[in-house]
Design goal:
Number of strands of chain B: 13
Distance between the termini of chain B: 7 Å
Distance between the termini of chain A: 103 Å
Shape of chain B: globular
Order of helices and strands of chain B: EHEHEHEHEHHEHEEHEHEHEHEHEHHH
Number of strands of chain A: 35
Largest sheet of chain A: 10 strands, mixed
Structural class of chain B: alpha/beta
Largest sheet of chain B: 7 strands, parallel
Number of helices of chain A: 30
Largest interface: A-B, 36 and 27 residues
Structural class of chain A: alpha/beta
Strand order of the largest sheet of chain B: 3-2-1-4-5-6-7
Helix content of chain A: 25-40%
Oligomer: heterodimer
Shape of chain A: globular
Strand content of chain A: 15-25%
Chain lengths: 933, 387
């Protein structure tokens, strides 16, 4: 039975105009669909190229394809699609543009859902596929998070945002019976068509699967009709289409749909044109203002209330016709929150005005839109602000490049009349430790700051890798630092500026760095293209890849050599009786109890003749005449381990460490255990090898700091430790007891004076690949901002093995302090701590301040194999909340508490032990006595 | 519109012990009885040895009539100095190339009247190595299967292999709805789920049950029988006439025996070793216990249910909730909670009537897994393939 006697399930209407290169690809993607019973109708809008010949060949080979050529070009997508609807024989219709493609399973998934749910149309997700960098990005992903069956737009008003006609499978009879056609002679006909189908459909289904691949071509190559925003006609057409949409939806008489319609206009459609002001000409912006202002003026106030604060100010600028203001706000919104303009204080309210204006607008409505008091922008800490550093010129001299620019400081956080340290820092993007620093010259005129920097002798190390470098301006004053990128506008980026390497070999090969503008408008450097350089880099990359393959091998060989031969030999040498070794957090940062002991020892006269070695790979501030820093597991590391007479550390040394006779090994440990440890852990119990290593490790300790009986019952027992216990408090908590005032910490972090500080310290969490390996905040920052934002400033410190990133839009409510060196300072400056199962709860309790326990994954946690030593809900010294909504209540209530509860006191007594601030002294006395001084 | 005449089942080999081989051996007769021509293709097989295992009603073919050498990985630094491993690697690469070529040739001989069911992703990798592009409308319809949970795939390398091989084929089948949803979130637009069939049949006459709790888990850390033993220790003294018998085999036998000795429950808890009389064993058991850390879709629960045996299990995989209706056909307890596992066992051991009722409910639920029912589901999938 031949298939054209049977009615096709789906008619795919493929429209094309002068696109012969892409038409075959689009048709192939339909022929390759898993659903085979379909027909393809190619509607050619009277192309002038040889589309007809190419398609007719395809028609001859596949009986499912038909070709229709229009007699006259219609200038848009509407008329060809209408022709397709009229010619369709299939039960369902799908539209495809000739420069896009379908996902292989799209039609089958849509079709099966349509006949299962018996709906008017089924829609799926669209992805934008960038042909240049081969990256995919979902379009309106929030609408396609999960499958929704048989719903209506009244159930889900957010659907107003979906203005595409090509991601939907329509029942043909639905379109024909309701006379649903595309409007001709107007661009953006999709907006009108989708409003029509949503309004008329009784029931639809949404699938979370990708169905349509919308290809994005490089801008020089082609500009589709709707991407050419330059002409006035384009703006007017879009406004017309949106107005039509408004009329169509108003028939549904549903307030949330109309609200969604207007807000979508303000937040997306109109905003798109206003944001162009950052990069387009003045005359273009004039056109935009001219067209949009009357439309915006006519809208009711209530729709503006739903916008973000900065979006409201943008509309204030539109109504004031302030082009400078629009440009400056475009820098903020489009380019990562760079702040420009002025803040004016009037009658206890704060208004934002552009650099060109002197005061807020006179009109009540406009003034209201400029009111940013509730934004608390003044309360953003200096380190979280993003300054607008605009490059005004880049000059190439012999041997160097000179960049000049101008910056603004609208929040007046830095006093440029005093001493300010300004540098240009060029950082390797993927390896942030590699940096080049160039000092800057600055001078202020009125509100603006002018700077100049000269780049010469740029040392870009090839060993650091092949990737790009980013430029930042670093401003330092009074211990506060701000690093913000430089802004380069599009015109500057058209010239090519190259820095050649100073090394002669690289000059011959032709390796240089080129200055370019990133997508976000920042200044960056990348390697120049060039045939000779490419060949050499190719060889270089292959060598480094080979090297990497052997790298891990060589690491193992190195370790084996050290373990078997070098370290045992070094142990035969005499001990250095005046050398003390410190390590903390596996050699990451000098913190914790070892650091506290170090601070005490350094000032103690008895240890005057001693030298110290820290195993830390970051800090240079510690190194001086008597102290050196070395990297963990380097060659020197073993040298020191084999010869130091006193070892102080807080977690563990490499597994092949062997203690020598005469060495004093003081173990401070880094926390009080909540989760089961040592031989109580099932994973370790099951493995004889791990059990043996745990016990061996503990045998090496000469003294262990045990702050409380609980610690003895849990940790000491689980490690089967039988040596000396030091029960005189915990050195790292001394600072908590002895530090009188905390204002200097607030000033250092530049935290807002009016708010309470809350510190959140979640414990280590496994991260999923899909999230990019980042820790996800278990509460919604928007909700936090709403409930607590104005009263509380949040500091977030994840476990040192996790990473989190906080979007800059929350900078005035929240800061990531995971890299802050001294956690005690964070404890001291905070009024309340939120944690879950982290051992920070025991340290913070010393301060007797309120705590809230947000155990959102309590069920998983208690079910995990490892288990804990006590039940959190039973013994916690603060409220334990399991749901996000309860969190805000608990924080509010706990902040108002004056005294600690009886449960808290019990917790302190049982788990934490007494701290009187002199524990370091006592332990140093013990060490001195043991060593005999 | 074509109709499907032939079903080809592809697996890695025919002699391995495990769920995949059982699946192939169970489902093949089902397809045959439904009227399809059935072929079984393996990537490797030691032909002469396995020939005795072949069922003559199916065509058996293989990619290469030898087995892939096993000892070919560099696990320790010392291994790099062993020439035997280098030799094995060389042999493996050569054999894989030949297998890929042969499989590709086989693939090209099938047309649109054939469905190729690839039960293990390695087979797909061999086809791709042999030059076949799996996602097109020529050649046979291709259905891929993955017999473990999404969580397990995401932990290791398997998710990448599945993405590479199975995203463009006609259908990708996993074991449970929850896993299917997780794969869909990951980007698979062709995923669905289907249960595996159980062919073991209980006799129709009433079965006499002993006071016996049985486990068929291997002696392996994944099956973590130590939790079951600890739970048993809590209640053994209350039920002196009940026994716990653990059948299986594996490396942890000595450790588990030591644990039993330490807890002094030797007279009631016993490690019985391997058995091939699963039917008779389940026939006389009262309760089936499962204390694993993670599972895919443990069909042992269904096999037990065919014999009216309810299950007490840890909630260690989405499959458990699909197989057992809590409080109706068995008891599900939070994973790694020894005390609740003991309570669950106690509840059934002390109430004979409840145990029987649950057994009947379990049996009724297990009808979903009969070969005929599963074949009907496959027929539905075939119908969707050919539209």
């Amino acid at each position: 039975m031949s298939s054209d006697l049977k009615k096709p399930f789906i008619s795919v209407v493929l429209i094309t105009y002068n696109d012969v290169t892409n038409v075959p690809t689009a048709i192939k993607s339909v022929q390759n669909q898993t659903l085979q019973n379909l027909e393809i109708i190619v509607v050619d809008d009277c192309s002038a190229d040889n589309t007809e010949d190419v398609v007719k060949d395809i028609v001859a080979a596949d009986e499912r394809v038909r070709y229709i050529k229009r007699k006259k070009n219609s200038g848009g997508c509407g008329a060809p699609r209408n022709d397709g609807i009229a010619a369709a024989k299939g039960e369902y219709i799908f539209f495809l543009d000739s420069d896009d493609e379908l996902e292989r399973h799209a039609l089958k998934n849509l079709y099966l859902a349509a006949i299962r749910d018996k709906v008017d149309f089924v829609m799926g997700e669209t992805v934008r596929y960038n042909l240049v960098n081969k990256k995919e990005r979902a379009w309106l992903p929030y609408l396609f998070k999960e499958e929704m069956r048989s719903i209506n737009i009244i159930d889900y008003p957010a659907l107003v945002d979906d203005t595409l006609s090509t991601n939907k499978l329509y029942k043909t009879s639905f379109l024909i019976d309701n006379n649903l056609k595309f409007v001709v002679d107007v661009h953006f006909e999709d907006i009108i068509f989708s409003a029509l189908v949503f309004a008329k459909a009784k029931k639809i289904t949404i699938l979370p699967d990708v169905v349509y691949i919308w290809k994005v071509y490089p801008t020089a190559e082609r500009k589709s009709i709707t991407n050419q925003r330059d002409t006035e006609k384009s703006i007017r057409d879009r406004i017309f289409a949106i107005k039509q949409r408004g009329d169509i939806y108003s028939n549904l008489k549903d307030e949330s749909i109309m609200s969604q319609h207007y807000i979508n206009f303000l937040k997306h459609s109109a905003m798109l044109y206003l944001m162009d002001s950052a990069d387009y000409t003045d005359s273009h912006i004039n056109t935009v203002i001219h067209v949009l202002k009357p439309e915006v003026q006519a809208l009711a106030d209530k729709y503006f209330d739903e916008l973000e604060v900065h979006e409201r100010v943008i509309y204030a600028m539109l109504l004031l016709e302030d082009k400078v203001g629009l440009r400056e706000l475009a820098y903020y919104r489009k380019y990562k929150k760079r702040l420009a303009g002025k803040f004016i204080n009037k009658n206890n309210r704060i208004y934002w005005v552009s650099s060109a204006a002197k005061s807020p607008g006179k009109d009540m409505r406009i003034k209201g839109l400029q009111d940013v008091t509730a934004f608390y922008i003044q309360q953003t800490p200096v380190s979280e602000c993003v300054y607008l550093h605009q490059i005004t010129s880049i000059k190439r001299n012999i041997g160097s490049i000179e960049i000049t620019g101008v910056s603004q400081d609208p929040l007046k956080k830095i006093d440029f009349n005093r001493n300010v340290n300004a540098d240009l820092i060029v950082v390797k993007r993927d390896n942030k430790i590699v940096r080049n620093i160039f000092p800057m010259m600055i001078h202020t005129t009125g509100q603006k700051i002018h700077w100049k920097v000269r780049i010469k002798d740029f040392n870009f190390s090839l060993r650091a890798g092949y990737g790009p470098w980013d430029g930042y301006v670093r401003l330092q004053q009074d211990g506060c630092t701000n690093e913000s990128p430089l802004y380069m506008n599009t015109k500057k980026s058209e010239e090519r500026l190259i820095i050649h390497s100073t090394a002669p070999l690289r000059r011959i090969i032709g390796i240089g760095l080129e200055i370019y503008r990133t997508v976000n408008g920042n200044l960056a450097f990348r390697h120049t293209e060039g045939a000779r350089r490419r060949r050499v880099m190719g060889i270089y990359k292959r060598i480094t890849a080979l090297g990497a393959k052997f790298g891990s091998l060589s690491q193992r060989v190195k370790r084996r050599l050290i373990e078997r031969y070098i370290y045992p030999l070094a142990r035969k040498l005499p001990l250095n009786k005046k050398l003390i070794f410190f390590e903390s957090q596996l050699g990451q940062m000098p913190t914790g109890s070892p650091k506290a002991l170090y601070d005490t020892i350094v000032q103690d006269d008895r240890f005057n003749a001693y030298t110290f070695v820290w195993s830390a790979n970051t800090s240079t501030s510690l190194c001086d005449r008597r102290t050196k820093c070395i990297k963990r597991e380097s060659w020197r590391y073993f040298w020191v381990l084999s010869r130091a007479s006193i070892l102080i550390e807080d977690q563990t040394l490499p597994y092949y460490f062997v203690k020598r006779k005469g060495q004093l090994y003081v173990e401070t440990w880094h926390g009080v255990p909540f989760k089961k440890m040592g031989l109580d852990e099932p994973k370790i119990q099951r493995s004889a090898r791990l059990s043996r290593s745990i016990v061996k490790r503990a045998k090496a300790w000469d003294a262990l700091i045990a702050p409380s009986q609980y610690f003895v019952d849990t940790f000491v027992r689980s490690y089967r430790y039988t040596g000396r216990l030091l029960t005189q408090g915990t050195p790292r908590n001394d600072q908590l007891v002895t530090t009188p005032d905390t204002l200097f910490i607030r000033a250092k972090l530049d935290l807002p004076k009016e708010r309470k500080i809350v510190l959140y310290t979640p414990t280590f969490r496994e991260v999923s690949r899909s999230n990019g390996g980042k820790f996800e905040l278990p509460f919604d920052m928007y909700k936090w901002r709403e409930r607590l934002g104005s009263d509380v400033y949040l500091l977030i410190r994840t476990h040192y093995l996790n990473q989190v990133s906080i979007p800059k839009r929350f900078a005035q409510y929240c800061m990531n302090v995971s890299d802050y060196e001294d956690i005690n300072e964070l404890y001291l400056v905070s009024d309340l701590m939120i944690t879950d199962y982290s051992s920070t709860m025991f340290d913070y309790a010393t301060l007797k301040r309120p705590m809230v326990f947000y155990a959102y994954d309590y069920a998983d946690y208690t079910q995990s194999e490892r288990g804990s030593y006590f039940d959190l809900i039973e013994r916690a010294p603060g409220s334990v909340v399991l749901q996000e909504d309860d969190l805000y209540d608990a924080v509010e209530k706990s902040l108002q508490q004056k005294n600690i509860s009886a449960k808290y006191k019990k917790f302190l007594k049982e788990f934490c032990g007494d701290e009187d601030g002199r524990s370091s002294e006592r332990i140093v006395d013990y060490i001195a006595k043991k060593v005999g001084i | 519109m074509n109709s499907i005449k032939r079903v080809v089942l592809m697996a890695n080999n025919y002699d391995a012990v495990g769920g995949i081989t059982t699946f192939v051996k169970t489902i093949a007769p089902g397809f045959r009885d439904a009227g399809f021509e059935v072929e079984i293709v393996t990537v490797e097989s030691v032909y002469e040895d396995s020939k005795s295992l072949f069922d003559p009603s199916f065509k058996h073919r293989t990619g290469i009539e030898k087995s892939m050498p096993a000892n070919r990985h560099f696990r320790r630094l010392k291994d790099r100095l062993k020439p035997a491993i280098y030799v094995n690697r060389f042999i493996y690469k050569r054999r894989q190339r030949e297998a890929s070529r042969n499989l590709a040739r086989l693939y090209k001989s099938w047309g649109r009247d054939t469905v190729l069911i690839i039960t293990q992703v390695y087979g797909a990798e061999c086809l791709i190595n042999g030059g076949i592009k799996l996602g097109n409308n020529k050649g046979p319809y291709v259905v891929g299967m993955y017999h473990d949970s999404f969580e397990e795939a995401a932990k290791g390398k398997n998710i990448k292999r599945l993405i590479k091989c199975f995203m463009d084929i006609d259908k990708f089948l996993v074991l449970t709805k929850i896993d299917a949803d997780l794969f869909r979130e990951e980007g698979f637009t062709n995923v669905s789920f289907i249960h595996n069939p159980v062919s073991i049949e209980a006799p129709n006459r009433p079965i006499k049950k002993d006071n016996l709790v049985v486990s068929l888990g291997r002696y392996h850390p994944q099956k973590s029988l130590d939790y079951l033993i600890k739970a048993w220790a809590e209640i053994a003294s209350d039920f002196p006439d009940w026994r716990l018998e653990m059948y299986g085999g594996g490396g942890m036998q000595a450790k588990l025996q030591k644990l039993i000795d330490e807890l002094t429950i030797n007279d009631s808890a016993r490690l019985m070793g391997a058995t091939d009389q699963v039917g008779k064993l389940l026939g006389r058991s009262s309760i089936y216990a499962l204390s694993s850390q993670h599972e895919g879709l443990p069909l042992a629960i269904v096999e037990a249910a065919r014999f009216n045996v309810p299950t007490v299990a840890f909630d260690c995989a989405p499959g458990i909730a699909e197989l057992v209706d809590h409080d109706k056909s068995g008891i599900i307890v939070p994973r790694n909670n020894v005390h609740l596992l003991a309570e669950g066992l106690k509840q059934l051991m002390s109430n004979h009537k409840l145990c029987e009722e649950m057994g009947v409910a379990a049996r009724k639920k297990s009808n979903e897994y009969k070969v005929n029912t599963i074949i009907e589901k496959w027929a539905g999938i075939f119908d969707e393939l050919i539209i």
